[in-house]
Amino acid sequence: MCGIVGYIGPREAYPIIIEGLKRLEYRGYDSAGIALFDGTDLKVSKTKGKVVDLENRSEKEITKNGNVGIGHTRWATHGVPNDVNSHPHVSNSGELVIIHNGIIENYDSLKQELISRGYTFQSDTDTEVLINLIEDVKKQQNVKLGKAVQIALNQVIGAYAIAVFDKNKPEEVVVARLGSPLAIGIGENEDEFFIASDASPFLEYTKNAVYLEDEEMAVIRFHKGIKIRKIKDDSLVDTYVQKLQINLEQIEKGGFDHFMLKEIHEQPKAITDTYRGRLLRNEAIIKMAGVEDNMKKFLNANRIIIVACGTSWHAGLVAEYIFEDLARIPVEVEYASEFRYRNPVINENDVVIAISQSGETADTLAAIKLAKSKGAFVFGVCNVVGSSIARESDAGAYTHAGPEIGVASTKAFTTQITVLTLIALRLARAKGTISSSDFRQHLLELEMIPKKVEKALKSDANIKTIANVYKGVSNFLYLGRGYNFPVALEGALKLKEISYIHAEGYPAAEMKHGPIALIDENMPIVVIATKKGHYEKVVSNIQEIKSRKGKIIGIVTEGDTQVRALADHVIEVPETLESLSPLLTTIPLQLLSYHIAVMLDKNVDQPRNLAKSVTVE
Ligand code: AGP
């Protein structure tokens, strides 16, 4: 879960790489490094800490000129975060240098082999083993760098996105990927090339991008272009250049203090962009090519298996409610990491929906590869265009949330629910399990959601006041019923991941089977108690909490009086259908966690120990 950046061309590489690393810091931020060829020699500077620490260090350590360079921001897997384990890593001869995102699983056996041949190692990393393996192949077999990389990678087990260059041949950079993302930006005049984990580091320079597929490598030569080959058999692959549709402004903060707050406020537009051209209320139809083209698969499916991780898994849980409720299709929601190793029963009559914002989450990617190998049809719901999961899926639908930079997922969650709701409604219509008046009402209500989200966002000041009351607690409980049980889980996750306060989400009725023991006057309990759904039952749950002096924060429908009379605080959201209520009830929970984290002076956009896309298992 690291970020890699590289440049070869006429410009100074240093500033491009440093700014690029800052854009990718959401991927990992425990150490950073850069390697440049300054015209005579290889210059490497690396340090524990953030990219700004690297800037300060490299200022003293290296000359910053040179037209070819590679840089890295790290999320440690092998070897603790320190200077020596930071990337780039240099081969024993000092000639070859590498940056790597991923994990080499058989690195120890390769290392022992190399040690037996006299190689020595400074760091504990798998990456240093790889660069010395490449060097050994290059020397032993007297081949060019590209060939040496290919041969070495065929001995490697694991995941990687790498960039390597040789100081004796600085006009050439070799890149390769398996499991970890790698994009190549091509300068307008094809006279310069940018290498990165995603397009954000080179968006301001070019919109022409090549996304390497799994098991592909490319040799990038200054003034000569790119040659892409299959790592397995060295066969040539056509270079497919995509024109990127996102712009720089989308990946800047736009006047907000944090990306997370910006992305929370972008949800009305993100939801609108996600149903635009798909929800056609006047014609009372839903049009989604990926669903239409595979309608038979969906309608003949024995069941739908949803695989995902984290917040995407919570969106999957909401989908379970709406698919079973409206389309009457049995759904199972699986943690991808468990599903992939549980030897699950899957067959060709199963439809697997994979949900992933980044489209790069290793466990979800592996889960869908497993499902495909057993004949299941895989439908991907991703936000990042051209991502691995999007390409691995048989068909899919993108959430049009735009780039999500904050590690804590917000607009991706609500746009995932929007896409899944559209699919469920379309299938319900096709199956005739929803009346046309109910169908129309759902289209109407869904179309009104963005305006209602804007209204919910207006409770920000009230939520900030509540956050100030509870910022000092060490535990929180979140309760919800039905469609809002997954929202309770999501609210707890948001608070945990950015404020580091322990929090648990529970089905409200489940409270009596244990968690109620935690409740006393020091325990704040967020209870989602909107009118539609199991309102009366939730009210009695609130009374049970109240009788144990728990502090109640009620998420209620505008104009609610009953819960207002019982709760210590209420946050109102506009009324909507129960099946659409998660799109509104999640908003105050996002803001509550955000304000508490800011008040606790936490790094909201880059919480400790986390990264935006988890590309290793
Ligand atoms: C959510 O805020 C977290 N960033 C994390 O749980 C995330 O949802 C999970 O890693 C899945 O990521 P994906 O949607 O990119 O696959």
UniProtKB/TrEMBL annotation:
It is an enzyme of class 2 (transferase). The keyword Repeat applies. It catalyses: D-fructose 6-phosphate + L-glutamine = D-glucosamine 6-phosphate + L-glutamate. Residues 2-223 form the Glutamine amidotransferase type-2 domain. Its main location: cytoplasm. Keywords: Aminotransferase, Cytoplasm, Glutamine amidotransferase, Repeat, Transferase. Its EC number is 2.6.1.16. It is found in: Cytoplasm. Residues 294-433, 466-607 form the SIS domain. InterPro entries: GATase_2_dom, GFAT, GFAT_N, GlmS/AgaS_SIS, GlmS/FrlB_SIS, Ntn_hydrolases_N, SIS_dom, SIS_dom_sf. The keyword Repeat applies. SUPFAM superfamilies: N-terminal nucleophile aminohydrolases (Ntn hydrolases) (SSF56235), SIS domain (SSF53697). It holds the Pfam family GATase_6. Gene3D superfamilies: Glucose-6-phosphate isomerase like protein, domain 1 (3.40.50.10490), Glutamine Phosphoribosylpyrophosphate, subunit 1, domain 1 (3.60.20.10). The active site is at C2, K612. It comes from the Bacteria. PANTHER family: GLUCOSAMINE--FRUCTOSE-6-PHOSPHATE AMINOTRANSFERASE, ISOMERIZING (PTHR10937), GLUTAMINE--FRUCTOSE-6-PHOSPHATE TRANSAMINASE (ISOMERIZING) (PTHR10937:SF0). Catalyzes the first step in hexosamine metabolism, converting fructose-6P into glucosamine-6P using glutamine as a nitrogen source. Homodimer. This is Glutamine--fructose-6-phosphate aminotransferase [isomerizing]. It comes from Algibacter agarivorans. The gene is glmS.
